[in-house]
Amino acid sequence: MVWRNSQRFRRSWRSYSSLILSERTLGLDRKTEEWKTHLIDKVDKILTNHYHNGVKVKTLKLDIGPCRDIKASYLDRWLRIIKPGIQEFSLLLPLVVNKIYSFPCSVLSNEAAASSIQSLSLFGCAFHPTSILGRLRRLKSLSLRYVHVTEDGLGHLLSKSSALEWLEIEACSGIICLKIPCTLQQLKFLSVQKCEMVKVVEIDAPRLCSFRYCGTPVIYVRNSSQLKNVDISPVNLSGILSYARFSLPSIAQNVESLTLLAGRIENANTPMLPSKLPHLKNLKISLVKPWSSPNYDVFSLVSFLDASPALESFVLRVEQDAMMHDPVVGDDTEYRRQNLECRNNSLRKVMITGFCSAKSLVELTVHILERTHSLERFTLDITYGYDRRTCNIAKFPIARMIGQCWSLSKRALEEAHRAVETADRYIKGRVPSSVQFEVLGPCPRCHIGK
């Protein structure tokens, strides 16, 4: 019976040209003690049969992440199936192993095989391309995550990938200066995340539209005329807002959508340079809990608004404990800063999540309300976006599924009520009648009586 089941299993996979092999697709049960061995055995049988039967594989996705003891000899044998006609290849290996597997460059040395592949994704291995690498004429998507690759190796790879449109580099060691050459004429999306060794990023891709970066913010862009979407979050969360004030107008003068993540204390008095972001339409800034005392002057973000005459949407996300919460005291004149003449005539929608009683946050809110004649909607979400499961902003799918809001600590709930009081006392009276104003406080169903 076992032999018949094995024969039936091999026949069922024998003619497939698209192979997505993982514990899930193979229907393995983790409750059994030997499921990892069964995973390797099944993958080995499928790929061996395909290789010997001459079946052309167009898509091959191997997820061997759970198998820490996988032998390199198995992987070498499986990769023989990469032949001319392959269009998509993905390899996911375990991160914790005794010896990192080195993806053989020879697999892509065959010009016919190299020129047919359109998507390549590697996770958890080493990859050292050399001059023997074939020309990847049709490669449009490249993802390297947790891959050890040198600057020279990556240079060889990119020099052979002139059709590349989408490039993702995440947690890759061995690169200090990341260079995106001008030969990548078709590159539209670039993501560089968690590459701690990278100190400088040099970009010379004339058609780059979107750039996502998490690392040390030293960026040079030679041709940024098409760069419309920028997302920057530094590794140590230090100085990103000051860096953005000074550098963005020069490296992304045509940016339309900008997302920034900041956390450590920054120089709140750093002014915006005379150069502006004339095309910026959507701005999102997130403030996370800092390493030291949270005393950031949020009102200084006005400089971004003043430098963005075309801005239409502004979202500020303030995480819990990102700011000092001031008591609600004094009259409303204490929450208005004087001698600010700049006005914005394009801003239509503003949302602040994590609104609290911090004085500078109230001052920022008042400033926007009083100096933005084009404003249509202003939303203050008191509960960090964890709440209001029926609302259309900052929702958590898990909360929707279980039918209740994300829980709030007693201290957070007390601050939420204090923030509602602040909004009622110092902000509501300043809202023009033409503006749709909403305060999202604690959920009366989930947080009542707490």
Automatic annotation (TrEMBL):
One Pfam family hit: LRR_At1g61320_AtMIF1
The At1g61320/AtMIF1 LRR domain, residue ranges: 46-443
Origin: domain of life: Eukaryota
Matching PANTHER family: F-BOX DOMAIN-CONTAINING PROTEIN, OS02G0105600 PROTEIN
Record protein name field: At1g61320/AtMIF1 LRR domain-containing protein
Source organism per UniProt: Aegilops tauschii subsp. strangulata (Goatgrass)
Taxonomic path: Eukaryota, Viridiplantae, Streptophyta, Embryophyta, Tracheophyta
